[in-house]
Structures are given as C-alpha cells and as structure tokens.
Design goal:
Number of strands: 15
Strand content: 25-35%
Strand order of the largest sheet: 5-15-10-6-9-8-7
Distance between the termini: 83 Å
Radius of gyration: 25 Å
Shape: flat
Number of helices: 5
Length: about 300
C-alpha cells in the first residue's frame, strides 16, 4: 500500500531538528558578524596553517619627510630598497571540531521532544559557542601591544586606543573601528550608575558606546583589571568547506554562512537519537602588534 500524500516522515523530523539547531547558532553569529562588519567567513580547508604576524619596516628615504633614514638618492642612481617584514608565529592549524550527543527513547517519551532534544541541543550549542570564544581569546592573549596603565577603566580604554592608533599610523595602516574587551566586574560599577542598555552577543555582553569608546564586549575571558582592544579589520573569520564534505557523502544541514553543520540521526542499536554537530568556525586576530592591552591600576 502506498504511503498517504503529505505524510510526515521520520526523516522530515530529523531535518527540522537540524534546521532548528543551525538556525539558533547562526542567529547568534549573524549578530556578531553584523557588529564586526563581516559579510562572509573565509572558507578554508582543515589543516590550513594559522600564523600570527609581527609587522616591521620602513621606507628607505633620506629626505627626512617621513622621519626615516637611509641612503641618499642621487639623480640617475639606482633607487635604494625599502624593507618590510612580516614575522610569522605558528598558531596551529585550522581544525574541524566534531561533537555528538545521544538522547534515549526513554528520555523522549518521559519528557517530550521539547525538553529531551530541543533544550539539551540548545545547551550543547551554547557550550560550542563558548569554546569558539575561548579559542579567540587565547589568540588575543598573545598580542604584543602594551599600553600605559590607567587609573580607571575609562583611562585604560583611552590608552589602548592611543597605543593602537600609534601602531597603525607607524605602519601606514588606516585606523578604522576598534573593538574592546573588558571584564564584566570592571564594568559593573559604571553600569550601575548609568542609563545603558546591554545586549548579549555570542555569549558576551555588548555595549555599542561606553565611556567614550565604541564596540565594547564584556566577558570573563579578560581577567579583572585589564582592557584589551584590536581593530575590527584585524579579525579574520574562518569556516570549513561543508560542500567538500557533502561531496564525500558526509552531509550536514547548514545555512549560507557555512559556520556550523548539524545532523540528527536515529541510533536504533541504542534506541536513541543522535545529535551530530561539526564546526570549524575560527575567530582569528592576525597581527599581534595590533592587539593592545592596558592595566587598570588605581594607584598609578
């Protein structure tokens, strides 16, 4: 007997679960990407080497116009070379990170799909997001820009902006927007006495404007008593090639940004449903010189 038209199949329910998972994660990421002005992640292969850079060099110009020194140019002679270098520091390889959890039939029958699958999937999603954020701050921690300590949070924020502005100008790069990271506890005293609305973006508190600077994220990834900052343009966003995986029959439900994939499959041998997740989303601050830090030291 043929199946009735428009019947809902188990595979349809699995796809619905996949889409819900990916939609929730992508919604959080899209808000972060909107703030940072990132239109699309760079698709890279797993195993691609990551390097952070230290930029150095100057023009070989003896005219004194740019403050550099070098070989004086004599009309008709060979023009002396200017030298610029980008020292690479290996930071590992781009990796895809697989995750899997299992929900038993007993749990589904006892608590329902909403609690047993949807809510626990959501908790798994938040843990994956936190792992991505933690990796980003591990990269940020290697920054070499050191700003003067400030007596207050506001002074420290001003100092990291000044340090980054000097570094960018020295290398002839445009200033652009800066993104700042502070500890929640350091911001709490200011927030308690101000009419400021905070948002939650990718698990971090976000303030569009705060203490004279823009784009401030509050997170416990920065320890109390410190302020970090980097230009938005210094942050690369990398994502895996899910199309290549699909061509090898390893298909995940994804959205257009391709930052995460999900696949819910029955595990009959365990009388359960598996949630399979794969991501390779990497937030990577590329130039170490363009990551500045300042201490908050009231006794300064």
């Amino acid at each position: 007997m043929a199946a009735p038209d428009n019947i809902t199949l188990a595979s349809d329910l699995a796809v619905a679960l996949d889409r819900e998972f990916v939609k929730n994660f992508s919604g959080e990421y899209d808000r972060l990407a909107e703030i940072l002005g990132i239109f699309a992640p760079e698709t890279v292969a797993a195993g691609t080497a990551l390097y952070q850079l230290e930029i150095a060099g100057d023009l070989n110009d003896s005219s004194g116009d740019n403050g550099s020194s070098g070989t004086a140019y004599v009309e008709g002679d060979l023009v002396a070379l200017s030298k610029f270098t980008a020292k690479k520091t290996p930071m590992g390889d781009v990796k895809v990170m697989p995750y899997r959890r299992m929900t038993t039939a007993q749990a589904i029958l006892k608590s329902g799909v909403e609690v047993a699958v949807y809510r626990t999937d959501k908790k798994m999603l938040s843990k994956i997001r936190n792992a991505i954020v933690k990796q980003f701050f591990t990269f940020l921690a290697t920054g070499t820009g050191s700003a003067t300590a400030g007596k207050t949070l506001q002074a420290a924020l001003a100092n990291v902006d000044a340090t980054l502005g000097d570094s960018l100008e020295k290398n002839g790069d445009e200033g652009g927007r800066l993104v700042h990271f502070v500890n929640r506890q350091d911001a709490a005293a200011y927030l308690g006495s101000a009419q400021i609305t905070t948002q939650t973006v990718f698990g971090m508190g976000y303030l569009q404007s705060f203490l004279g600077v823009t784009d401030v994220f509050m997170t416990n990834q920065v320890k109390s008593g410190e302020v970090w900052a980097t230009p938005v343009d210094n942050i690369r966003v990398l994502a895996p090639d899910f199309g290549a995986l699909a061509s090898a029959s390893l298909a995940y439900q994804t959205e257009s940004n391709g930052i995460i994939g999900a696949a819910h499959t029955p595990a009959y041998d365990h009388v359960s449903v598996e949630t399979n997740v794969l991501t390779g989303l990497t937030l990577f601050p590329e130039v170490k010189d363009y990551i500045a830090k300042a201490a908050i030291t009231p006794s300064v």
